[in-house]
């Protein structure tokens, strides 16, 4: 079990096949097959189910892949740390859906132009899942929404820098009466992402008076901000999103907008993480930010 074998295993798992993995790795299929067979023999467990031409991970394979990802990511981080010259290698970035849509296109393009030898891997998840991925070394950096009191982080240790300030707004049906408080809302359903989303948590807190009153609130989980908008326009649920995302949609006239609060998006990383690739990404990101630096 070495770094090369783990890399072969990860590629086969992602491509779900020997032939495509061999092409990406620059190897012959028989060599890839032998590597996988030797790895399974060493571990003493089947990592794949063979279904015609597909290689599907077994439960044991899923578990092993998680560890393989961490080991490979740590190995690359170690190499970059002991040879800190110019940005190279892979930078794994996680971000919220809203940040990817409204904030990252420009900085990512600028970074790729400046440092073409760095491979950027971008994934989207809610904030809590992003923090977990950072701690487990599955991500190198993440853009997360952090409320001003930060209570939800608990004792988790992460470094973070504020980059973007987002204005959250409530979306209501166009025919809904104007509101001043959460109690004025006539709809008891909220369209939101899955648990772990900071904006969902803040919406639930606001709608229940931050725990001061009970509310019969139905959560309608959706997979996109466009779906949230549609639910609100149809009168099926209210929703909450950053105004920067709403502006991207270009919709007017179908919903009523009520300002809610401001929440900062931070660039988060593990304590001490400071590779050249990350430093350059941080600097480009801060140049695009809208929070004044002291």
Q: Which descriptors would you attach to this protein?
A:
single chain; 294 residues; alpha/beta; Arc Repressor Mutant, subunit A; D-Maltodextrin-Binding Protein, domain 2; eight-stranded mixed β-sheet; 43% helix; LysR_subst-bd; WH_DNA-bd_sf; transcription cis-regulatory region binding; transcription
- Number of individual domains: 3
SSE series: HHHEEHEHHEHEEEHEHEHEH
What is the top-level CATH class of the largest domain? Alpha Beta
- Strand runs, count: 10
Instruction: Please give the count of helices.
Output: 11
Rg from alpha-carbon coordinates: 22 Å
The percent of residues in helical segments reads: 40-55%
Summary of the model, kept short:
The chain has helices at 3-15, 18-25, 29-43, 59-82, 97-102, 105-114, 127-135, 198-207, 225-234, 243-249, 276-288, and strands spanning 48-51, 54-57, 89-95, 118-124, 141-146, 159-173, 189-192, 218-221, 238-242, 255-269.
Describe this structure in words.
This protein is of the alpha/beta class. The chain folds into three domains: 3-79, Winged helix-like DNA-binding domain superfamily/Winged helix DNA-binding domain (Arc Repressor Mutant, subunit A, Orthogonal Bundle); 86-163 and 265-288, Periplasmic binding protein-like II (D-Maltodextrin-Binding Protein, domain 2, 3-Layer(aba) Sandwich), CATH 3.40.190; 165-264, Periplasmic binding protein-like II (D-Maltodextrin-Binding Protein, domain 2). Helices cover 43% and strands 24% of the residues. The chain contains eleven helices and ten strands. It has an eight-stranded mixed sheet with strand order 4-3-5-10-6-9-7-8, with helices on both faces. The chain has a two-stranded antiparallel ribbon with strand order 1-2. Helix 8 (198-207) links the parallel strand 7 and strand 8. Helix 1 (3-15) crosses helix 2 (18-25) and helix 1 crosses helix 3. The radius of gyration is 22 Å and the shape is globular. It starts with a helix and ends in a 6-residue tail after the last helix.
């Amino acid at each position: 079990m070495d770094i090369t074998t783990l890399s072969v295993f990860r590629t086969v798992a992602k491509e779900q096949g020997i032939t495509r993995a061999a092409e990406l790795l620059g190897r012959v299929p028989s060599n890839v097959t032998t590597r996988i067979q030797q790895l399974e023999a060493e571990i003493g467990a089947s990592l794949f189910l063979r279904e015609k031409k597909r290689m599907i991970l077994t439960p044991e394979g899923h578990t092993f892949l998680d560890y393989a990802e961490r080991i490979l990511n740590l190995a690359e981080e170690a190499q970059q740390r002991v040879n800190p010259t110019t940005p190279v290698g892979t930078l794994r970035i996680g971000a919220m859906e809203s940040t990817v849509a409204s904030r990252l296109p420009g900085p990512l393009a600028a970074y790729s132009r400046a440092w073409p030898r760095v491979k950027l891997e971008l994934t989207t998840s809610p904030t809590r899942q992003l923090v977990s991925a950072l701690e487990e070394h599955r991500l190198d950096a993440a853009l997360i929404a952090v409320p001003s009191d930060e209570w939800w982080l608990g004792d988790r240790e992460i470094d973070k820098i504020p980059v973007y300030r987002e204005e959250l707004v409530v979306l209501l049906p166009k025919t809904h009466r104007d509101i001043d408080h959460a109690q004025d809302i006539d709809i008891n359903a909220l369209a939101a992402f899955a648990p772990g989303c900071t904006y969902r948590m803040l919406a639930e807190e606001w709608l229940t008076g931050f725990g001061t009153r009970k509310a019969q609130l139905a959560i309608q989980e959706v997979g996109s901000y466009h779906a949230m908008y549609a639910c609100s326009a149809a009168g099926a649920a209210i929703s909450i999103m950053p105004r920067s995302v709403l502006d991207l949609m270009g919709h007017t006239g179908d919903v009523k907008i009520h300002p809610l609060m401001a929440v900062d998006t931070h660039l988060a990383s593990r304590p001490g993480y400071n590779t050249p690739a990350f430093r350059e990404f941080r600097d480009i990101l801060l140049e695009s930010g809208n929070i004044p630096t002291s």
